[in-house]
Every structure is written in C-alpha cells, then in structure tokens.
Design brief:
- With 437 residues, the protein is an all-alpha fold.
- It contains 14 helices and no strands.
- Helix 3 crosses helix 6 and helix 12 runs antiparallel to helix 13.
C-alpha cells in the first residue's frame, strides 16, 4: 500500500514508516531468503551429487579438465550477464511498466548470450591448455543455458514470486542430471558428458521461458531496441566489470594452475573449487533477494534503511562464522565421502578456501549495499585492484607453495576487498536520522 501511494503521488499525508508486519519488514525478506536458499540449495545439491558421480567415473586428469572448462566458460557467462541482472532488478522494481522493462532486457540478454558463446568458441582454440578444445565450447553452451535461467530467476525475484523459481530450477537441473547420467552410463567419456550437459541446459532454459510466460504477466516478446540497450549498457558497464572481475578472482587459482606447470594438481584443486562453489550458495541467494529489497526500502522508507542494513549485517556475520567453523572440522570427512581417497590432498585446500568463502559472504552483502546506494563506479576500482592483486599473489604463492599457495592468495584478496568495502561504506552519507548511529 505504501508503494502504491508513493507511485500514484497521492496528495494526502502518508506515513512512510512501515507498520509492524508490513512487506518492508524483515520477516517477509527472511521468508524470501529461506525460500531462495531452499531452491538454490536443492539445485546445488543436485549439481554436487552429479559432480561426485563425475569425479568417480572420470580420471583425475579428465575431472581437472572438466572443472577447468567450467571455470573458463563461467567467465564468458559473466560476460553474457554484463551486470545487466542488477540493472534489471533495479529498473523493474522502480518501473511503472514492468512488462516493457522485461521485454527490452530479454532481447538484450539473448544478444549477449549469442555474442559471448561465439567469442568463447573462437578463443578456446588459442587458450585451451589441452588438445580437446571442444570441451570448452560445449561447457560454454551449458553455462549459457544456466545464464538464461538465472535471468528468469531474477524476473521471479523482482516480481516477488520467488516460488516460481522452483519449477524452473527443477526442470533445468533435472534435465542436466538425467542426460548427464545417461551419457556417462552409455559412454563414460568427457566428450559425451559435456555435450549432454550443453543440450540439457539449453533445453532447460527454453522450459524456463515457457514457465515465465505461463505464470507471470510477461506475454510480450523480446524487443530489439538498440538505443535502449545502449542506455542500459552504459549504466551496467561498471557492474559488468565488477561481475567479471569477481568471477575471475574466485576462479583465478584454478585457471592459472595449468599455466604455472601444475597440470597434475589441477584435478585435486578442482575438488576444493567445486566445494567452494557450493559454499557460495548463501551469498549469491542473499544478494538476489537483498538487492531489490533494500532498493525498495531506500526509496519508500529511507528512515528504516540503516536499521535494516545493520540488522541483516549481524545475521550475515554470524552465518559466516558458523560456516567457517563447521568447515574446519568437516573438511576431511566431506572430501573422503564425496570424492574418495584419491582426492585426500584436497582437504587442506578446503580448509583454507572455507575462510575465503566466509569473507565472500560478508563482502557480498557489503557490495549489495554499495550498489543499492548507486556507488558501483567506486566498487569498480575495488574489483580491478583485487583482481590484479589476486593474479600476482596466485602466481607468486602458487609457484612457491603450489595449490595451497593459490588458495591462500584468494583468502588474502578477500581480506583486501573487505577492507576496501568497509572504508567505502564508512564514507557514505547516511540520512540525517541515522547519521549519528
């Protein structure tokens, strides 16, 4: 009701402080986060079970190729996103014509996916460290299908219909798991696996689009308005660099190991990297829900903005501490249970990377608040600095201490990022009623 009155511009006095139980309070956001965590958690569990099966069927070398190919293709999937998901959430949440925003962004998304996949196919011939570069092309198709589905998830989040994501996730992940199992059963080779995942992911994204048109009032088709795209592209350019830099920083250790002469160790590091990706479930789910939530609070009820930020921060900090403590004790049994004794050398890597994951959770939240306050240009410099630092640290520490040094390089980089974010937020002008707090 508060949002409706503000948009309509009612001349009558309106109390912008949301009453207890209103949609802007913590409890509805808490329910959305838990639902988002359940949906994404189910997806990550299905993917992780498939990864375990793949690791046990393929050799350590082929599993290293598989994980390296995923990290390579994710870099181009981030290019296909180009920061437009955040701009979409912000534009959709504040627009009086959400259908038009949806159609314009969907056309832009399809174009970015096509260009990114073609670019990845060309560069894989030169950048792939092994001979079978078709693996990179197929896995890029797999991540492009995931990128399209992620865009549909953003539409569900922006429409405050998070429950619709369950069907999209179930269909796509189910197709990927089923076809991958069939491929490995019929022909347990890396080539058959990656092409099965590529086909299943693209098929799942088409099913997600059908479900969006069926369940939400988005009956319009994609629009191809270059002028509108240019406006949003300029707005998302800092976010594009931020997203790509962050994604590369997360996977830089795995990407650089083959070029540092550590090809045999790539498979071991891959197991720890997959567990790190699963651990990113909490920060990624939090950011998808928190960005539109805090954007709306800052616009409709600015007096409550700092209170909500502070309350959520303590929850995030407590979650990060608990997750880190559990990972220290559970690293060894988890690695042996999931991957088997051949991957026992990944246990110290998991313990180190769990510290990086705890810092990433905190940093994700702080980045979200910085983006809500429209300071993505400043954060652009944070990401570029941390990417350069991570590359240098990974090279130096990786050559000296191998995979453990590469893991510690990520931890040090996240500590640097935390310091930069805290310094940036300390300098922001909070509103008058909360400035002293």
């Amino acid at each position: 009701e508060i949002e409706r009155v503000c948009i309509a511009g009612s001349p009558s006095p309106v109390n912008l402080r949301a009453p207890k139980g209103d949609v802007l309070k913590w409890r509805p956001m808490q329910r959305s986060i838990f639902l988002r965590l359940f949906i994404d958690g189910s997806s990550r569990v299905a993917t992780m079970l498939l990864t375990i099966f793949i690791a046990r069927v393929l050799s350590i070398e082929d599993f290293g190729k598989f994980t390296f190919g995923l990290s390579y293709s994710i870099a181009f999937a981030l290019l296909a996103e180009s920061g437009t998901h955040f701009v979409f959430l912000r534009e959709f949440s504040s627009s009086d014509a959400p259908q038009k925003v949806w159609s314009e962004f969907f056309g832009l998304k399809l174009s970015l996916v096509t260009v990114s996949w073609c670019l990845a196919a060309v560069l894989s011939y030169f950048l792939w460290p092994w001979q079978d570069f078709y693996v990179a092309i197929a896995l890029t198709g797999y991540t492009m299908g995931n990128s399209l589905s992620d865009f549909f998830h953003q539409a569900c989040n922006a429409s405050e219909r998070v429950e619709l994501s369950a069907w999209i996730t179930g269909f796509q992940r189910g197709a990927c798991v089923l076809l991958a199992l069939v491929a490995l059963t019929k022909s347990p080779h890396l080539g058959s696996l990656v092409w099965a995942l590529c086909f299943a992911s693209l098929l799942g994204s088409m099913g997600g689009y059908w479900w969006i048109r069926r369940s939400l009032p988005f009956l319009v088709w994609p629009r191809w308005n270059i002028q509108v795209w240019a406006t949003w592209w300029r707005a998302s350019l800092p976010l594009m660099t931020i997203v790509i830099s962050f994604g590369l920083t997360m996977r830089l250790g795995l990407l650089l190991l083959p070029y540092l002469g550590l090809i045999e160790e790539t498979g071991i590091y891959s197991a720890a990297q997959r567990l790190l990706d699963v651990g990113n479930l909490i920060p990624s789910s939090l950011m998808m829900i928190a960005l539109p939530h805090f954007t709306k609070i800052r616009r409709v009820s600015p007096d409550n903005f700092f209170v909500e930020v502070r309350k959520t921060f303590w929850v995030v900090l407590g979650t990060a501490i608990v997750a880190f403590a559990v990972s220290q004790y559970a690293a060894a049994p988890i690695v042996r249970l999931l991957f088997g004794d051949p991957y026992a050398a990944a246990v110290p890597l998991v313990r180190v990377l769990s510290g990086a994951n705890a810092l990433i959770l905190i940093n994700y939240f702080l980045v979200t608040i910085l983006l809500v306050m429209n300071h993505q240009k400043r954060h652009f410099f944070h990401e570029m600095l941390c990417l350069a630092a991570c590359a240098a640290l990974t090279t130096i520490l990786g050559l000296r201490w191998g995979t453990v040094g590469a893991a510690w390089a990520l931890v040090i980089t996240q500590i640097l990022m935390l310091g930069l974010l805290l310094w940036a937020l300390r300098q922001q002008p909070w509103n008058k009623t909360t400035e002293s707090a």
